[in-house]
Amino acid sequence: MRKSVLNQPIDTFNLDEVAALARGAFLNPKQLKIVTLNPEMIVNAIKNIELQAAINNSNLIVPDGTGIVWAYKTLNKKEQIKIERVPGIELAEKILEYASELKKSVAIFGSHPLSLERAVFNLQNKYSNLNIVKAIDGYKGVERDSEIADEIANENPHLILVALGSPKQEVWINKYSHLFPKSVLIGVGGSVDVWAGKVQRAPKWFRDNHLEWFYRAVSQPKRTTRILKSLPKFMWMVFKALSQTKQGF
Ligand code: UDP
Asked: Whose alpha carbon is nearest atom 24 of ligand 1?
């Protein structure tokens, strides 16, 4: 169900529901652009009009970050709507499972060449019928973006996973989506690194206690700075919105 949080659209489907919508788009081919929203993206979208346009033009915007679920619940205390986190990597894995089951073709664009190679190998082992028709790393330079989009479009894949990190991946999807009228497109951030075995996901305890973001912030130093930059702004936005609605904590 389409709702909004801090002036951003948000769909309150759970992981299985979103994956089922992707499955539906495989069976009855149509374009489905999925954005997995986190607090950093909400902060960045204020100044980045391309990211904002990409969010607005998506078919599904799901709460990837714990902070999004928390903000939604804090700002809509009286609402009975159920909202839960849809971890991007788990969503992508479920969609890959369906792609394999239905023998749909997959393209992956992004991540380091070595990560990509290993991830493709591991994914093909994990999902027996997975048909990866194209895998292009994300370090060819922006000037080749358009050429890469054409190269992927030539394969007409049913599923396109874009692993360039945010906002690059959302902006790329929005810019070239006209070339993929019947594809499911989703930005998967660092998931390829996890599938490659290069990066570990947070241990179960952190995931169960809504602290995956904290684990990632501490274990990946480049992320620490990013989170430290956006978190106070995000908290301030929630606080400001809360005082405007006069709901109180
Ligand atoms: N990446 C890329 N090209 C770039 C910048 C990043 O392919 O120009 C890849 C990077 O190698 C990594 C992913 O994009 O695999 C981004 O990962 P990150 O953990 O930053 O994304 P998040 O999961 O936070 O969205």
From this structure: 189
Nearest to 71 by CA among 40, 92, 44, 49: 40
Query: Which of ligand 1's atoms lies nearest the C-alpha of 192?
Result: 15
Q: Does residue 170's CB lie within 6 angstroms of at least one atom of ligand 1?
A: no
Which 3 state secondary structure label does DSSP give 8? Answer: strand
d(CA 244, CA 240): 6
Q: Is any ligand 1 atom within 6 A of the Cβ of residue 190?
A: yes
**Domain of residue 65, residue span:** 2-221
Note the residue count of the chain. Answer: 249
For ligand 1, atom 14, the nearest C-alpha belongs to: 164
User: 3-state DSSP helix/strand/coil percent for the chain, to nearest 5?
Assistant: 55, 15, 30
pLDDT for residue 213 is more than 90: no
Q: How does pLDDT run across 118-139, given as a tens digit for each residue?
A: 999 999 999 999 999 999 999 9
Q: Which pLDDT value is given to residue 247?
A: 53
CA distance 72 to 248: 14
- How many Cβ atoms are within 10 Å of 222's Cβ, its own excluded? 6
Indicate if ligand 1 lies below 6 Å from the C-beta of 165.
yes
Domain count, the chain: 1
What is the per-residue pLDDT for 246? 67
Within a domain: 155 = yes
162 belongs to a structural domain: yes
Is residue 65 a part of any domain in this protein?
yes
Question: What pTM was estimated for this model as a whole?
Answer: 0.95
Q: Could you give the CA distance from residue 236 to residue 247 in angstroms, rounded to a whole number?
A: 16
